[in-house]
Write a structure and sequence with these properties.
Radius of gyration: 25 Å
Number of helices: 11
CATH topology of the largest domain: Cathepsin D, subunit A, domain 1
Oligomer: single chain
Shape: globular
Strand order of the largest sheet: 2-3-10-4-9-8-7-6-5
Strand content: 35-45%
Structural class: alpha+beta
CATH architecture of the largest domain: Beta Barrel
Number of strands: 27
Largest sheet: 9 strands, mixed
Number of domains: 4
CATH superfamily of the largest domain: Acid Proteases
CATH class of the largest domain: Mainly Beta
Distance between the termini: 48 Å
Length: 458
């Protein structure tokens, strides 16, 4: 026991044989195999043996520093990830250095973008050498951010790419960090702009958008809008000005406004032949009974038009409960929709992620016990799920009806076939990237490149 090195739940390690001097590793004795974040994995033959080339972005949320690696393949095996997905991975052997000790370990190569660490150190690599104290971190020693950045300075991406603005509210959200990282990986310069800190100059000859401190936002090639519902009006006003200045917007102001208006969006979907749950809308409390009957009676769903992320959505299980909820909302002069309850869906729906008229990923969302809404913000869970051809066609059709380039389309499976619940113009990336292990952020950046006629430096 005394000869073993005690480490914490996270440590800085070195993989010098593949030019990685510092990488933060998650120490996980529950995982058998170690893994390394790798992209562009390409096998090739050398001296009668299989080798693999791959790119490593060793710093979390930093797409500027890329290390190109080559290693001999020692195995190819199926590994079950923490999300339950089974994936066939290449296995390499490389030298791990911890403090003054070094030894050879096996590492699988996979995309760990949706994980919190670029490397995971499993128990096979620790046997006979390490003891883990899960309550501690960096027992081997901390490494400063400057030291890490300087060690990779020669690998820094110097490509001249597009100038992209990310228009959102919180730079620390998973989706925003992933988009910044993906853009930097492709050699683009991307800036985060907080919607609240932007202001406009409306002028016939020199319209401008200014940022805090008087900085002028100029010379952008593209804007990625990630807009909270409460900021739709002002953010779309900013987008309209960007559009008038010739800046490409991944989703346009008009398409976002259409998707955010729940009643209008449902009317648009119907006009394009997209099936939705039977829905009622009225302005007078005197019409309550007719409203309930028109959607097939109770149980039914009552939705506030202004509600988001499952808020302002109520399941009324009896007619009396439905009458009470509807009349209470109307007494507050709130606009509401009444919608049939699809009992056979059992609290599940399908989220299809659409980019440029193609479903690039799909997942199933399941409501938590005692809840009817399949929403991760309410404690729901996600899992990988394959959308049927009919569901894929419906998702694409719904996205086109809104005029969106990028959308998350929520579909519920009813006994009469799939129905569209909602089309989201700023869909989150964390759930779908984690469930599917797909790099959705990179797909969005590639969509911008295509629209801006940019040739990437790969």
């Amino acid at each position: 026991m005394g000869s073993k090195l005690t480490i914490g739940s996270q440590e800085w390690v070195s993989l010098n044989e593949i030019n990685i001097p510092h990488i933060k590793a998650r120490i996980d004795s529950g995982a058998k195999t170690s893994s390394l974040h790798a992209l562009n994995i390409q096998p090739y033959q050398k001296g009668g043996q299989t080798w693999v080339s791959f790119d490593v972005y060793p710093i979390q949320n930093d797409g500027k520093r890329k290390v190109k690696c080559d290693a001999l393949v020692v195995d190819k095996r199926v590994v079950k990830s923490s999300s339950g997905n089974r994936e066939q991975r290449y296995v390499i052997q490389t030298l791990l250095k911890l403090e003054t000790q070094s030894w050879q370990i096996e590492v699988t190569l996979t995309n760990r973008d949706s994980m919190g660490y670029r490397m995971l150190l499993g128990r096979e690599a620790m046997k006979g050498r390490l003891i883990v104290d899960p309550e501690e971190s960096f027992l081997i020693g901390a490494v400063s951010q400057d030291t890490v950045l300087n060690s990779y300075e020669k690998f820094k991406n110097s490509n001249k790419g597009l100038r992209i603005g990310l228009l959102a509210s919180n730079q620390e959200l998973y989706s925003n960090k992933r988009l910044i990282e993906a853009a930097e990986q492709r050699g683009h310069k991307i800036e985060f702009y907080n919607i609240r800190n932007c202001f406009m100059k409306l002028d016939a000859s020199t319209p401008q958008i200014h940022y805090r401190g008087g900085e002028t936002i100029a010379s952008l090639d593209a804007v990625i809008p990630r807009i909270r519902p409460a900021q739709t009006f002002y953010a779309c006003a900013l987008l309209r000005l960007f559009e008038s200045m010739g800046v490409f917007c991944l989703n346009t102001s008009d398409s976002i406004i259409q998707s955010r208006d729940k009643l209008f969006s449902l009317q648009l979907l119907l006009s394009k032949g997209v099936n939705i749950p039977t829905t009622g809308f009225a302005s007078s409390p005197l019409d309550t009974n007719d409203l309930i009957d028109m959607v097939g009676g109770s149980p039914l769903i009552v939705k506030l038009l202004e509600g988001t992320q499952g808020k302002g959505v109520v399941l009324a299980e009896t007619k009396k409960a439905a009458e009470s909820v509807i009349n209470a909302f109307k007494s507050l002069k709130a606009n509401i929709l009444v919608q049939e309850f699809i009992k056979e869906a059992e609290g599940k729906d399908i989220r299809c992620f659409v980019i440029d008229g193609k479903v690039v990923a799909s997942m199933q969302r399941t409501a938590p016990p005692g809840e009817f809404r399949a929403n991760v913000h309410l404690g729901g869970t996600t899992s990988v799920a394959k959308a049927t051809p009919e569901e894929r066609r419906l998702a694409i059709k719904a996205t086109k009806a809104m005029g969106l380039s990028v959308a998350g389309v929520d579909i519920i499976r009813s006994s009469g076939g799939p129905l569209v619940l909602e089309v989201n113009s700023s869909p989150g990336l964390e759930g779908i990237e984690t469930a599917t292990q797909k790099d959705i952020a990179l797909m969005m950046i590639k969509s911008i490149e295509k629209k801006c006629k940019f040739t990437a430096y790969d």
